[in-house]
Specification:
The chain is α+β, with helices and mostly antiparallel strands and 142 residues long. The chain has a single domain, classed as Gcn5-related N-acetyltransferase (GNAT) (Aminopeptidase). It has 4 helices and 7 strands, in the order βααβββαβαββ. It has a 7-stranded mixed sheet with strand order 1-2-3-4-5-7-6. A hairpin with a 5-residue loop joins β3 and β4. The longest helix is centred in the middle third of the chain and has 15 residues. The protein is globular, with a radius of gyration of 14 Å. It starts with a strand and ends with a strand.
Length: 142
Amino acid sequence: MVTTKWLYDNKNLEDSHYIRREVFINEQNVPVEIELDDSDNGAIHLIVYENDLPVATGRIILPDGKATFGRIAVLKNHRKKGFGELVVCELIKKASEMGYNEHYIHSQTHAKEFYEKLGFKPYGEIYEEAFIPHVSMIHSDD
């Protein structure tokens, strides 16, 4: 059984942080001080559970009045099961319900095609974030 949980503050983020540690810190070697940042404060977090176990997560931050998605991660042994798409679609839905019709993401370049399939379009130059190549992308409800 798949369930989702929204968190509107920086409390009870253990499950989200567990997933992010596994994916970003342990798999991708992102330094912990970069991964677990101050943007968790004030962010809206989504956690996806399969049979009550946390398997995927993502967050919405609202810098400068923009809905920016980030820290989207799926545990390695749960990939290719639709959890990543579920997270992104739920983030889009939530941001749209809040009145944001444009959605931004800083995508790792290897995930660019995944986001394009969900309606995101790349813009700007490729840049490095947390020692990993990224590209900015935008999704619009229009």
